[in-house]
Structures are given as C-alpha cells and as structure tokens.
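[Automated response] Your request has been received and processed.

Submitted sequence:
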Amino acid sequence: MSDTLLVTGASGHLGRRVIAHLLESNGVAPGRIVAATRDPAKLSDLAAKGIKVVAADFEDAASLSAAFAGVGRLLLISTDALDKPGRRLAQHEAAVAAAKAAGVKHIVYTSMPNPDDSLIPFAPDHLGTEQAIKASGLSYTLLRNSWYMDNMFLPLPPVLASGQWFTSAGEGRIANVSREDCARAAATALASSDTTARTYDITGPESLTVSEIAAIVSEVFERPIAVVQVSDEQLTQGMIAAGVPDFMAPLWTSFDANTREGKMNIQTDAVEELTGTAPMTLKAFLAANKAAFAKAA
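Generated structure:
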C-alpha cells in the first residue's frame, strides 16, 4: 500500500492543524503528504515545505480522481455544503467512490456523535457518508467529533456582554472538544498503519450541562452568568431578533434540543487512546483564549 497521506479541505482550520500535527507530532515527512483544496494558491506555504498541493473539487469527479491517484490513506474532512439538502452527502459519496477507484486503501472520516439518532438536520449527511464508506469495502476510521469548544466564539461574546445565557438544553450534557484535539486525533489516525475498521467518539474530558459550563465561564472571566431556560421556539425567535439569519437559527436551536434529549451525552478517552495525550478541559480552553473572547465581547 502507498504510504502517501492525503488531507481534504486542507486550507480550512481543521485541515491545516491536521497537517501541522502530521509533521510535528507524528513525524511524517512532507513528501508523504498531499494537501487537497479547491484553491491550491491558498496553500503556497505548505508547498514551500515540500508538501504536494493538489486541486480537488468535490463536484468534479475528474479532479478527485487526479487528486487521489497514488494515495494510500485519505482523511475526508466533511465539507461545509449546507446550503442545499443532500448536497454535502452527494459530495462525500463522490469522494468515497473516487477514492475506491483510485486505489485508496483506508479512509478516515470526520463524522458526528450519534448520526443515526440525532435532531440535528445535517446528521443524515454524516450517517449516509459512514454508510457509503462501509459499503465501499475500504478499511476505515470514523471519528465522531463532538461539538467544538471553538464554536463558542459565536454565542459566548453576547453572553459575556449581557450576563445572560439563553438555552433550551435543560439539564442535557455535552462533552465539548477543542478543534486542536480533533486535529491531533485525526492526524494520528491518518498516519497510523492500522487497517482495522474502527469508530471513535472524539470528545473532551468532561460532559457538562449548560449551567456547569456557565459556571466555568463565570470563573474564568470573573463575571456572573445567569442561565435562562427557554423553549426551542423562544430560543429560535430570540436568535433571529438578535440578528442570526432565519435559516441558521433553527439549526443552532437543534444543537440545544439534541443536547437536552441526551444525544450528546457521550464522553470517552478516545483522544488520549489515539494520541497518548489527554484532551484539553473547557476551563483550560477558555483561559487560553480569554483575550480573544473578551475582545469579541
């Protein structure tokens, strides 16, 4: 099997950090790495390091075939094509088909928790992709990444400014994980020679309620935070009134509803199992990014 490793979405936040960890944490030589992106010009810095940069468009089968040629293991980072139902799944299915046709032997895929039992509208994209990978006959590693701590950069600044956290998550728990830990886990899985079919729930070290998260936020930022429980409809309408686009507000509400129903209450040691290092706690993440959060607020 070829020892070449390809990362899709290499110009994105996660993709770039995966490549950094391939080089720094896993000791992969630059010449073994292929960075795939729609716009190779965005990765000129990686090309300068000796990494092969290729164009790959998930809606252009020819570009996928060319990009995947000679690749042994592929990291398929889920795309952000959420503008049209079914578009992202079609992109992923095309990538899986192209990988098989090109002779790729192993796919690592960034999925989500419980894609087969979720209230989040895009869960079927992830479930369908997992099914396509399994049906391909290729060996695989499924990384079911929990909700990023980094995603708090959107809702937390208004919370810090107002002192109120509106939520419909109730007493549901979630084990947020940093994007950096997801990147470390993905890099390790991609660099591995393991061809066993595996599924990992990639989570942080603590499963917390919104009230517990708010208490940590209050401690780190030294300001009181009051958690206000509302209905899903109230949360959606409140976000729209605050300027969140109409089509995005229900999506954000679905994350709270999914948490409330216990579908995000998953906490594992998978990050440490894969990388040998425990994932970052929420308190440590907030403290490390305190200045950035305060500026955004």
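Summary generated for your ticket: The first helix runs from residue 13 to 24. The longest strand covers residues 139-145.
If you did not submit this request, please reply to this message.
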